[in-house]
Design a protein that fits this description.
membrane, single chain, Dihydroorotate_DH_1_2, 337 residues, globular, FMN, 16% strand, pyrimidine biosynthesis
Length: 337
């Protein structure tokens, strides 16, 4: 029904407008008590799906990636679609509008999306207010810096977000890999990244300790990926999310393929899997990896898990395939048992 009726209708309209319309619609359905249908239709409940990763118990390994529910407005309702966890954000200390519109583009021929949103969000404190109402959804908090904050002062922004969210999320994700905030990716260099993560780990130990993960770009070289392995070991963070969006446009067919921003969806599938496999093999599986990028089928999900991912996340595949994809992945995982 989603791919034959709902998606063709939604895809006739501006993608950012559709995103907000979808949020309002799901909220309304929830108030009417109709999200129970989503639970019965899409959730797969089975002990065999449970995973314990970086000290947390996930009811299944399929999560929603950051960027979809930036402001923690819909995490409760989205969990009804069968996600084992939901990652909110990227959040910044102060609210910011993001980049000028139009900034979100569908590449239908490629089953992809280009976005240059620019960390648009209502600020971390507004999200905390909503997270206080959480009813047993496992939440990841993806944090970043405000656009106007220079890289030399970036740690303060991450610290503010970390401290504000600490009591309301189950794990943290440090986002230094978005291509849509000027110079942000420079923080992926070994020295500034080690300093940033070490500083957050010091705060983390004082508070008792929650898993901190690093989200990396798919465009890193092998040498840079080896640096990432070394940084994880040095700072003793819990793991890595591989990968964020790419700036590559190789092999695209769609007319709007040259739009600037980060590319997600099917064209990212092979590269993100390569990065997962590289990190897993070269580190000798020293840390957990959450695999994300181009998962549009159960086979894609299994490929990520076989490459070394402990958990996976959906974003563009969820938009193109609908919530049925979550169910299909979980059912296929059970078949492998």
């Amino acid at each position: 029904m989603y791919k034959s009726i709902v998606r063709p209708l939604l895809f006739k309209f501006d993608p950012e407008g559709v995103h907000h319309f979808s949020f309002r619609s799901i909220k309304l359905l929830s108030k009417l008590g109709l999200t129970r249908l989503a639970k019965s239709s899409f959730q797969v409940e089975d002990k065999a799906l449970e995973r314990e990763v970086f000290g947390l118990k996930f009811k299944n390994p399929v999560g929603l990636a950051a960027g979809f529910d930036k402001d923690a407005k819909l995490y409760q309702e989205l969990s009804d679609f069968g996600f084992g966890f939901v990652e909110i954000g990227t959040l910044t200390p102060k609210p910011q509008p993001g980049n000028p519109k139009k900034r979100l583009f569908r590449l239908k021929e490629d089953q992809a999306i280009i976005n240059r949103m620019g960390f648009n969000n209502g600020g971390v404190e507004a999200a905390v207010t909503r997270l206080k109402k959480n009813k047993n959804v496992l939440i990841g908090g993806n944090i970043g810096k405000n656009k106007v904050t220079p890289n030399e002062e970036a740690f303060n922004d991450y610290k503010i977000c970390f401290e504000a969210l600490y009591d309301y999320v189950d794990y943290f994700v440090v986002n230094v890999s978005s291509p849509n905030t000027p110079n942000l990716r420079a923080l992926q260099d070994k020295e500034p990244l080690t300093k940033l993560l070490a500083g957050l780990q010091e705060l983390n130990k004082l508070k008792g300790g929650k898993p901190i993960l690093l989200k990396i770009a798919p465009d890193l070289t092998d040498e840079q990926l080896l640096d990432i392995i070394d940084i994880v070991k040095t700072t003793q963070i819990a793991g890595v999310i591989a990968t964020n969006t790419t700036i590559s446009r190789e092999g695209l067919k769609s007319e709007n393929k040259e739009e600037t921003g980060g590319l997600s969806g099917k064209p990212l599938k092979d590269r993100s899997t390569e990065v997962i496999r590289f990190l897993s093999v070269k580190s000798n599986k020293a840390f957990p990896i959450i695999g994300v990028g181009g998962i549009h089928s159960a086979a894609d999900a299994l490929e990520k898990l076989e490459a070394g991912a402990s958990l996976i996340q959906l974003y563009t595949g969820f938009i193109y395939e609908g919530p049925e994809l979550i169910k299909r992945i979980n059912q296929e995982i059970l078949k492998q048992k």
